[in-house]
Design brief:
The complex is a heterodimer. Chain A is mostly helical. In chain A, about 70% of the residues lie in helices and about 0% in strands. By secondary structure, chain B is mostly helical. The chains are: A mainly alpha, B mainly alpha.
Chain lengths: ~300, ~325
């Protein structure tokens, strides 16, 4: 991270002419300070990640002595073997993959249908449908009524409790809607003259040309479901069904809650660090792809203030 | 934070605007001009395929969003687990009186307000400052890298964030290493009530500020470069340009985000508190949602917890509506 940044710092010292007026000395000083502060902020942002990597590869002795910051001390990989040999970890990891893929698929189908219909400005009652969707952003039923509902549907210990209740994110819906609104109308008209129905237009014309927004939405949903843990805590009572986030939470809780702090429950810091790394790995791998899309995706849906 | 959505459609909520749904282009059928509105029958006949796409999503909203809203009625009824999901008998405001007379409720209520207010006051301006700072960077590459790094925490699970926090503030963690280096005695931060707020707020800053800049940076790109040129010709230095051109340029975005933030300021990140609180820091860490989670799901007092939740949700709604109303009056900017 520091090499390209350093190069930029060097560049910052070169005064640049702005419309014939040279930068004042104060402004040059400001720009240098500004760049240094931003580099500092980047370091602070990355520090917790660097720290967790260092802890994951360090030996317990150095961690207990408080000597690990961003460089591993007493390098070892035995903790990885230890964590990865726990069958429950892999079962929970598999659950996360299953929940994430099913939930993302359901969410994408529902959101696309909803967004496409709402993007048609001539649709009668459109404002009302948008209204009832947006209202849920400002007022919600709350934890208890949701809990009672899921229980009375008999969805306890069922994947449905995780993949269905959060299927549509209104934010994603509005981003997608505004994308479809900007879709060239002529193309759809031409397709409809050629005899395609609404379904045909959506499936064969609009969706194949909307890959960028679809990719953004898939990534947004996948990240959300990958990261979620609370609905599993509420509705899953068998450890077999937990996602890996709950597995990790139980590791963290086992030693941070003082009432449980018997010696036996103290879980080594590097075990926790390794579990964190493995849990976060897919997101970090996806991040470059995420990045490519989300800025334009978010801007699409939002800028009109 | 990630729900700034201001499209012209939101303005139509509640049917304030008179029937914009039927634009003249909508009916190519040679309809007689006497009626500009399409009837529902005609709309359904013409667009039934579009309406069919709406069917499942609307069913979803009704069952999983509106039914729980109606489910709030158990705040006024006695609910028995396994019984009717809307409760069994009316008890009026019994549960509301219960929490108003409950000292724990008031402690929790003030914790929520303090935590929410501190987050609002401290965290709201930071993305604006960071966006302006990023905007001053001349190297596009450096700017892109800095942005990528600052967005990263936004994509982390709250469980991961809690794990990172617990590690940093642990007795062997980085913070205590620094204290140690300066000759201080290590502090077990997470078990000290007086440290909960600083820990929580800094972790919120770490996680949200970078992502918060995204909308401001987007707004900055829409400012007309000619305004800067004109300001420069008038002799404005960079600071004056920021003050007189940049800030007014992003003011509408600031106002809209402020309304949203005020509206959600009681919704302190419940999941993070749940992961970071423990019996020893409960005194400052306990907030309305953790309290209602504990008494509702933990002890099974569903009706009581629903009453607390409804109270919280209504305050939130009132805050959004109020902030929006005031903003409309004062600045002319509003969500709808």
């Amino acid at each position: 991270m520091s090499t390209p940044a350093d190069r930029s710092v060097a560049k910052l010292f070169k005064p640049k002419k702005q419309g014939g007026i040279k930068d004042s000395r104060a402004y040059t000083v400001f720009r240098v300070v500004n760049a240094v502060v931003i580099i500092g902020l980047c370091f602070v942002t990355l520090y917790p990640f660097l720290n967790v990597i260092a802890v994951a590869f360090s030996s317990q002795g150095y961690i207990n002595a408080g000597q690990v910051n961003i460089i591993p001390r007493g390098f070892n990989t035995t903790t990885f073997v230890q964590v990865m040999s726990d069958p429950m970890f892999w079962r929970n990891y598999g659950n996360t993959i299953l929940y994430t893929s099913v939930a993302t698929a359901i969410s994408m189908v529902l959101t696309t249908m909803f967004a496409y219909a709402l993007s048609k400005k001539h649709l009668k009652g459109r404002a009302v449908f948008i209204g009832i969707a947006v209202f849920t952003m400002f007022f919600s039923g709350g934890i208890i009524p949701n809990y009672v509902l899921i229980n009375s549907l008999g969805w306890r210990n069922s994947i449905l409790a995780i993949v269905v209740p959060n299927a549509i994110s209104i934010f994603n819906l509005l981003v997608m809607k505004s994308f479809f609104e900007n879709f060239p109308e002529e193309l759809e008209e031409a397709a409809s003259i050629d005899g395609l129905t609404t379904y045909g237009i959506l499936l064969r014309i609009v969706l194949p040309l909307s890959k960028a927004v679809l990719a953004t939405m898939v990534l947004f949903y996948a990240v959300t479901f990958w990261n979620s843990w609370f609905s599993a805590v509420l509705y899953m009572s068998k450890p077999d069904l937990y996602p890996v986030t709950v597995y990790l939470r139980n590791l963290l809780m086992a030693s941070s809650q003082p009432q449980d702090s018997d010696e036996g429950l103290q879980i080594a810091a590097n075990v926790k660090a390794v579990t964190m790394l493995l849990t976060v790995l897919p997101i970090v791998c996806l991040y470059p792809f995420l990045q490519k899309y989300f800025v334009s995706g978010v801007m699409l849906g939002s800028v009109k203030a | 934070m990630n729900n700034l959505v201001v499209t012209d459609d939101v303005e139509q909520v509640g049917g304030v605007r008179a029937e914009p749904a039927t634009s003249p282009t909508a009916s190519p059928s040679p309809a007689p001009k006497k009626s500009a509105k399409t009837t529902w029958r005609r709309a359904l006949a013409k667009d039934w395929r579009l309406y069919s796409l709406l069917l499942l999503p609307i069913v979803y909203l009704v069952v999983f969003k509106y039914l729980p809203m109606a489910g709030n009625i158990i705040a006024f009824r006695r609910y028995r687990p396994g019984g009717n999901i809307f409760g069994d008998e009316w008890v009026g405001f019994h549960y509301f009186e219960m929490f108003i007379n409950d000292p724990t409720f008031w402690r929790v209520f003030f914790n929520t307000i303090i935590l929410g207010a501190v987050c609002l006051v401290l965290i709201f301006p930071l993305p604006i400052v960071l966006a302006l700072m990023l905007n001053e960077l001349r190297s596009a590459k450096f700017k892109r890298i800095a942005q990528s790094i600052s967005y990263l925490p936004h994509f982390m699970s709250v469980v991961i964030v809690a794990g990172l926090v617990l590690q940093l503030v642990s007795t062997r963690g980085t913070i205590n290493q620094i204290i140690d280096a300066f000759g201080g005695t290590p502090i077990d931060f997470i078990q000290k009530p007086e440290w909960f707020r600083p820990i929580f707020v800094s972790s919120e800053i770490w996680q949200t500020v970078g992502w918060g800049t995204i909308l401001y940076l987007a707004a900055l790109t829409t400012i007309d470069p000619q305004l800067y040129e004109a300001a420069r010709i008038d002799g404005a230095n960079r600071w004056k340009q920021t003050w007189h051109v940049t800030l007014p340029g992003i003011a509408p975005t600031i106002v809209v985000l402020l309304i949203l933030n005020i509206g959600s300021f009681l919704n302190v990140s419940f999941e993070k508190v749940l992961l970071l609180y423990n019996p020893l820091n409960l005194e400052t860490a306990d907030i309305l949602s953790t309290y209602l989670y504990r008494v509702g799901i933990g002890s099974g007092s569903f009706s009581y917890a629903t009453a607390v939740g409804l109270f919280e949700a209504l305050i939130g709604l009132a805050l959004v509506l109020g902030a929006n109303f005031i903003s409309k009056r004062v600045t002319g900017a509003s969500l709808w």
